[in-house]
């Protein structure tokens, strides 16, 4: 069964550094998402992406965050200047179809980001 | 704005027994979709079951079934014949367009 692939599985970075989290969505999917989960807390929506542009973003997704689909297969999340509170598990997800809700989101295994 | 609430932070069940996890949500929409995701210690997010709001029939997937009460905006998950591998965090989620909105999660432990 096709999978969403995320790399790296664990990233450690120093405060103020830039990080790029990478995702390869399922190949025929059209809608892409980033979520984050601070340890022990709920899974929070960051951003959705369709047709090479952001379709929705949360208030968490401020100017230090950006997303890109550079080559038609990868989907990246960049955090420009990391803060301690950015430490979390980051999940990429993709879905096919209308995006209207019927198609479930398929999640990657996540990238654990630790900011020191 | 839509919200999803899971009022049981932790639940415990004996192996082979049945357990029900609760979920309520708030929306003004009439057509939407509801999901249960399982997150084992590996922290992978695994789809367990989904329900279309326009369907009155409750969804079932093997040992997993839901009790969908649209008027009450309730969407509980029943796990029958619980197995040790069912131990995980379970998230209820709502979707109308685009993003999923998750509840806070219920940590399920299974006792042998």
In summary, what is this structure?
The complex is a heterodimer of chains A (116) and B (112). Chain A has 116 residues and is an all-beta fold. Chain A has strands spanning 5-7, 10-13, 19-24, 31-37, 43-50, 53-57, 65-68, 75-79, 88-95, 106-107, 111-115.
Brief descriptors of the model:
A: 116 residues; seven-stranded mixed β-sheet; four-stranded antiparallel β-sheet; 49% strand; B: 112 residues; globular
General description of the model:
The complex is a heterodimer of chains A (116) and B (112). By secondary structure, chain A is an all-beta fold. Chain A has no helices and eleven strands. Chain A is globular. Chain B is an all-beta fold and 112 residues long. Helix content of chain B is 0%, strand content 52%. Chain B contains no helices and twelve strands. In chain B, the strands form three sheets. In chain B, strands 2, 5, 6, 10, 11 and 12 form a six-stranded mixed beta sheet that branches. In chain B, a hairpin with a 4-residue loop joins strand 8 and strand 9. Chain B starts with a strand and ends with a strand. The chains are: A mainly beta (116), B mainly beta (112). Chains A and B meet through strand 4, strand 5, strand 9 and strand 10 of A and strand 5, strand 6 and strand 11 of B.
Indicate the structural class of chain A: mainly beta
Provide the low-confidence segments of chain B as ranges.
Answer: none
Give the overall silhouette of chain B: globular
Helices of chain B, by number, come to 0
Q: What's the count of strands of chain B? A: 12
Cα distance spanning the termini of chain B: 41 Å
**Helix amount of chain B, in percent?**
under 10%
- Helical residues, percent of chain A: under 10%
Mean pLDDT of chain A: 91
């Amino acid at each position: 069964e096709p999978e969403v692939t995320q790399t790296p599985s664990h990233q450690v970075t120093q405060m103020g550094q830039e990080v790029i989290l990478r995702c390869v969505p399922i190949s025929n999917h059209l809608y892409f998402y980033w979520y984050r989960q601070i340890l022990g807390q709920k899974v929070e929506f960051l951003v959705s992406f369709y047709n090479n542009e952001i379709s929705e973003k949360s208030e968490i997704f401020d100017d230090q965050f950006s997303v890109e689909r550079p080559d038609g297969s990868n989907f990246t999340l960049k955090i420009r200047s990391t803060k301690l509170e950015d430490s979390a598990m980051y999940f990429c997800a993709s879905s096919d179809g209308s995006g209207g809700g019927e198609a479930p989101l398929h999640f990657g295994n996540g990238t654990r980001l630790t900011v020191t | 704005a839509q919200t999803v609430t899971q009022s049981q932070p932790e639940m415990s069940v004996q192996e082979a027994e049945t357990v029900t996890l609760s979920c309520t949500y708030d929306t003004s929409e009439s057509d939407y979709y509801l999901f249960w995701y399982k997150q084992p210690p590996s922290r992978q997010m695994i789809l367990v079951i989904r329900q279309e709001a326009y369907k009155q029939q409750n969804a079932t997937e093997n040992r997993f079934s839901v009790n969908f009460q649209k008027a009450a905006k309730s969407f509980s998950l029943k796990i029958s014949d619980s197995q040790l591998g069912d131990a995980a965090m379970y998230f209820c989620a709502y979707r109308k367009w685009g993003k999923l909105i998750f509840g806070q999660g219920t940590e399920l432990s299974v006792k042998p």
